[in-house]
Amino acid sequence: MRPTTTDSITRARAAFSGGRGYLAACTTGLPPIAAREAVVADIDAAARGDVDIAGYSAAVESSRASFATLVGAAPDRVAIGSQVSVLTALVADGVPDGGEVLVPEGEFSSVARPFLHAGRGLRIRPVALESLADEIGAQTSLVAFSLVQSASGTVADCDAILEAARRHRTRTYCDATQAAGWMPVDAARFDAVACHAYKWLCSPRGVAFLVVSEEFQRHLIPRYAGWYAGADPWLSCYGHEFPLATDARALDVSPAWQAFVGAAPALELFVSLDMTEVFAHVTELAARFREGRGLRHPALEGAIVTWADPDASDLAALTAAGITASGRSGRARVGFHVFNDEADVEIALAALVR
């Protein structure tokens, strides 16, 4: 199996200055050249006393629009934030008092824990990911899950989960942090979708998004509303009587300006790519690595590959060979992205031969 190099992959690879041996986009992505240049230029300008506030807001809105395009949403359905945990806390307000929240066992804490501490008698019920669809019932108010699991790389069976949720009138909340950037994501299928852009979307940490349906937003509380959540942010800096935005911007958290400066060009890059071509490229690389290691192919194949490594010896071997990888929950973890190619697979496999 040889990964196919397409126009999207060629252009994507040219947008990065590095990437050889970097198999950790699932931990944090590499900044594209344009993102680095934008951040450096902004820091240099600020050091000279040239702070462009209007430019910061433009970067925020450009990022919002790009992310909306990437996940098939309208920009007015996208709220901005800085962490998934904060966005999850907003979603928790949409669960009725005493409602059941179904989550996968071992789910990333930012997706699960805010429900645990929301109060109001919410009941958190963890089940095996592969049983998630079957466990949705009339008693389930909301099912919350990552589209791609952080610790294992397992891709959730969205079709089954969404069909079960539809039958039982259960709301759906999906975290696309480990998915957006390498696989197509359709946010319109869910009541709410959160995503932090610092992993596969290769943006600075501190840029996160919440896509929320118009109907579900009616049940949410803009509890973190500050000046940027106002109908006109620049007329909302003082006092408490200003009107909030009428769309998802009412849920905005005040933006980390410099982070959005780097996110805007990074997100523009990913919008310009054909995500089906990106998906084919990264999953072919991951499949080749699985074959080389003799690992079982999952039913829903993804860009992240993990395997048991309880003493971290495999992670140490990868590190010694100059490979940047990671370890989670007693497992070694590698992820293949647009800046990787077949040579990265071969280098990693060679490092693990002993």
How are the secondary structure elements laid out?
Blueprint lengths: L6 H8 L18 H15 L5 H18 L7 E4 L2 H9 L7 E5 L4 H8 L6 E5 L4 H4 L4 E7 L11 H11 L2 E5 L16 E5 L11 E5 L1 H4 L39 H16 L2 H19 L10 E5 L4 H8 L5 E3 L2 E5 L6 H10 L3
Parallel strand pairs: 2-3, 2-4, 4-5, 5-6
Antiparallel strand pairs: 1-7, 6-7, 8-10, 9-10
Helix pairs in contact: 2-9, 3-9, 4-5, 10-12
Main sheet: strand order: 1-7-6-5-4-2-3
Q: How much is the radius of gyration in Å?
A: 21 Å
The number of distinct β-strands equals 10
The chain-level structural class is alpha/beta
Low-confidence stretches: none
β-sheet strand percentage: 5-15%
What is the N-to-C order of secondary-structure elements (H for helix, E for strand)? HHHEHEHEHEHEEEHHHEHEEH
Q: Could you report the average pLDDT, rounded to the nearest whole number?
A: 95
Largest sheet: 7 strands, mixed
Q: Supply the number of helical segments.
A: 12
What is the terminal separation in angstroms? 24 Å
Helix content: 25-40%
Shape: globular
Q: What descriptors fit this protein?
A:
354 residues, 7-stranded mixed β-sheet, globular
